[in-house]
Amino acid sequence: MRKSLPQTDLLLTLMGAPHADDTLTDTLRLVQALLDSGTRVSVWACGYATLLTQRALGECKPRNPASWDTEYPSTAAIIATMLAAHPEHLYWYGCRFCSDDRGADDHLAEVVMRPPARYAENVAAAGKTLVIGVM
Amino acid sequence: MDPSRVLLIETRGPHSGPGCAAFLADGAALAAHGSSVRVLLLGDAVTGAVANAVPEIASLIRAGAEVAVDDISIDRRGMSHARLFPGVTRTSLEKTAAEIVDSDVKVVWH
Amino acid sequence: MLAIVEQAYRGALEKQFFDCFCLAAELHRQLGGLDMLLRGAAATYAVPAPEPVSLILGGRELATFSVPRTNLGTLLDAGAGVFVEREGLAEHGLTDVEPIDGITVVEGQELARRWPDYRTVCFL
Fold this sequence. Notes:
The complex is a heterotrimer of chains A (135), B (110) and C (124).
Chain A: E1 10-14, H1 23-36, E2 41-45, H2 75-85, E3 90-95, H3 96-101, E4 112-114, H4 119-124, E5 129-132
Parallel strand pairs in A: 1-2, 1-5, 2-3, 3-4
Chain B: E1 5-10, H1 19-32, E2 36-41, H2 55-62, E3 66-70, H3 71-76, E4 89-91, H4 93-101, E5 106-109
Parallel strand pairs in B: 1-2, 1-5, 2-3, 3-4
Chain C: E1 2-5, H1 12-15, H2 20-31, E2 35-38, E3 55-57, E4 60-62, H3 68-77, E5 81-85, H4 86-91, E6 103-106, E7 121-123
Parallel strand pairs in C: 1-2, 1-7, 2-5, 5-6
Antiparallel strand pairs in C: 3-4
Helix pairs in contact in C: 2-3
């Protein structure tokens, strides 16, 4: 039997490449503000945003030669921290096709990869949907 | 849902091309047709809020829309003391979160 | 070489430290000298800004939010020439703001006349 998706108040469909602008920074600011007010949030990462939860970097980005002892957390580590801190309020999904299309196949275990044909189920499980960024 | 309450979140600035002006013109048209329109300028879009960088902001305000800039975005750009277009206020994305999740508000992110 | 920067604020949270100024400093070191021109949205890099606020995400403070002006300072300290177009400052309401020490304000296209003097002209 297929497990039903947890109901959330808001689905954020996040698209767009990281390192291009501050979309990811602002999206996570928004997610945190919503969580702080008790809102349940799900994120569907699409397009290049699927790269954010890859495990290739581990916990940290490469070292900064100008600040060797500073640890710079990877986006996967940041997202994992948020998921761990809000287990009943935050869910992260990834579009399996977009991910495969970009050769990104090793994601955080907490991230649920779903086929794009099932996107409507995620929309139905949320009170509201907001699309952020473009493919 | 009452579709007449609209929140537009613009993230692109005038340097990104004509899309910023077109999106804000959409907002002005909505406001002129009776919708209650609020606009949050976020990220690069805050650069459009000074002087007359994006004339569509004046159109929005004339049509009755509220226009605000995100504090963090404007501080990051060293524009904390820049004179904003008259009528544009300061807020934050965090303060807008409740409105974003409000089922009575249609939200469009550009 | 002359490196022109016109796009700015590209991924604070995922970039953290390796931005166009880090790259330019390395090019300056390896290639025997670099000038940088800030124009468009990147003109705002030329003026001081408050230290970025840390973000608290999932209870974890992220204090490694990118600090472009710190990296720009490193580039200046290394001896690179940094210029900003007056028009870019004006477009952002920054006409009356003093640029960061070491940055020279130039008119639009002023540096274009010097392109033949550079071995390489590129956009970063």
